[in-house]
Amino acid sequence: MPAPIxxxxxxxxxxxxxxxxxEREMIQKECAAIRSSFREEDNTYRCRNxxxxxYMHMLGYPAHFxxxxxxxxxxxxxxxxxxxxxxxxMLLLDERQDxxxxxxxxxxxDLNHSTQYVQGLALCTLGxxxxxxxxxDLAGEVEKLLKTSNxxxxxxxxxxxxHVIRKVPELMEMFLPATKNxxxxxxxxxxxxxxxxxxxMCERSPDMLAHFxxxxxxxxxxxxxxxxxGYSPEHxxxxxxxxxxxxxxxxxxxxxxxxxxxxxxxxxxxLAQVATNTETSKNVGNAILYETVLxxxxxxxxxxxxxxxxxxxxxxxxxxxxxxxYVALTSLLKTVQTDHNAVQRHRxxxxxxxxxxxxxxxxxxxxxxxALVNGNNVRGMMKELLYFLDSCEPEFKADCASGIFxxxxxxxxxxxWHIDTIMRVLTTAGSYVRDxxxxxxxxxxxxSVEMHAYTVQRLYKAILGDYSQQPLVQVASWxxxxxxxxxxxxxxxxxxxxxxxEDEVLDILESVLISNMSASVTRGYAxxxxxxxxxxxxxxxxxxxxxxxIYGSSIDVELQQRAVEYNAxxxxxxxxxxxxxERMPVMEKVTTNGPAEIVQTNGETEPAVLETxxxxxxxxxxxxxxxxxxxLGGSDITPVIPTAPTSKPAxxxxxxxxxLGxxxxxxxPVSAPAPQIAQxxxxxxxxxxxxxxxxxxxxxPSITAYSKNGLKIDFTFERSNTNxxxxxxxxxxxxxxxxxxxxFVFQAAVPKTFQLQLLSPSSSVIPAFNSGTITQVIxxxxxxxxxxxxxxxxxxxxxxxxxxxxxxxxxxxPQSWQ
Length: 818
Prior knowledge:
By secondary structure, the protein is of the alpha+beta class. Helices cover 53% and strands 10% of the residues. Helix 13 (216-228) runs parallel beside helix 15 (261-277) and helix 21 packs parallel to helix 23. Residues 591-697 have low confidence and may be disordered.
């Protein structure tokens, strides 16, 4: 058989292919030749054939038939064969295939080989694709190599140990003695991999974290030597000595200093030196400064040091690199709640970022701008944000409008300013505002009695000839119907009054009714407004009767029904019409933005405690409650009253049944189905509107409700100011594994003597490595002051598989229920 072509010739041939089909033909022909060579057990050219197969694998073609050939090359005594064999194993094999277990003995032999390069190959392969079984079998050899004096092997063994710990965390203590002398090594490669190993151990074990905190002074000394050392061509990158090692040390210091006063104190000085001595003209220096800022913000650092860190981020905002500006905005958004005044100093720079061409920077700048709004700067910030609303892309308008509404409601210096601001938003981006904007503005106008004439005049001017902004037209129609007499009388004292006749007002409302741009809801507002004007106007009642009668035969069922009812008022109940259509009284505000208001503050969503909004229909909650009671068969457990519709209503009942099982938390026998009830009482019915809950927990200790498989759930408690029977439980879910947990759902059930309400969670994804948490609020009504017990159900996806678990929580502190 002729000798197969070399790898270089194969690459050159494939590159000459003009079409995809021609390339596939060449690959198939070469694969056939390689298979023939493998069948003939050709040891001479096996290495060359596997190398070509790996190249074809990199191009995306199947190469699984070469897996066993890789094992044969690994077993060879020649270094060139071993090198290609191990490379093929790393590319073609993983722990899902049983073939990889055949390598264990070969790797063990090569770890004890007399040649360091063969040992290095074995360490690289084990650290790349070793399964948990292989790691358990070979951890002893890795630990021996970690203690060797050969720096080439020590750095590879340290990285291999990281992989072993990730696969088998219980083997972590085996490597503890070997880590003691790693930081004394002069070789930068060993130092770098040692810091990576220490970081992994600290992130996975609180005991290791406490043990390694004594190494903080040594790490500080290494970092100081790196900063103060002179030029070293071996480690220099753009004039900075080994920036990769500096970044790794800063990350480890961040973990060691978190929630520890002594460790934080020991690293304050070196962090200040790094922040002031690092060159910022190159991207390398910016990377180190960014890690320094993250470390300062994460540990218990001094206030002056935190201001220095925020000033560094402020300088980043002036950088020409878009990535650096985006990173700075994101970091400032995370720190704005803890260091608000320091971030405020960079307000003008942040506002300038609203004009950036990059949409990601614009969005971050918008979120940060809203977080910076307070009572002192609300006028200036709203002016900038309204200007941004005028010119921004459509995808920003909805979020920007919502943010302006929330900020104006919280910090408005006067009612007139508040009304003007919201009207400006409706005029600019009315079709993008949320559905609750119209009733909220109507409520604001109704409650501002002294502003009625001014408001109706402004709204009348706003909709003259322009009906494109439907929410604005709806508010204007409602106000004209309610305060049309003030508009016609010209009683406005806030600005120059306009002269408007009754017929001109009706012309506007009739134009809204016949406009093609008017939605069905808007026409309903306009028709109702016309009907209201029949009691406020004196000269145009006959015209109003005519308009109302015309729409009695409208093809719009909603509009037809309104018109028919209004016609009946004119004909049969005219004596009641003035009383029925009299001016609306001042409205009591029940809720601002739905049952749970989500306020964007520092980049994360926090549920603000508000009153529960009653359901729109009395029949629907009753039927839902009865369905739940039928489902539970009289079980002595109260159902959860959700604050928002679930994403899978069809399976909600089955999931609740799974959660509760046959559990009878009160111990009473299940005899008969529970009686039907008209409507489930809401948790907070009857409570006054403000304030609902203490801002600070009254000394109630927190508990860990669940800790398994890397998922940890903590409960913290608060008590109501006005009703001591209400306990607010905030859950915090964290994830210590190396992969995110997605589609996380938390469910809970309590005995029948309690009532429980779950608010919406802050997210459905729990970030890995404890880098973030999901928060969710539970409200529990316990009128009989009984000991609190709860059963929880957790579902989530992790590592590609669906996870589910049940647990009971019985260790609630007495202060939370007594």
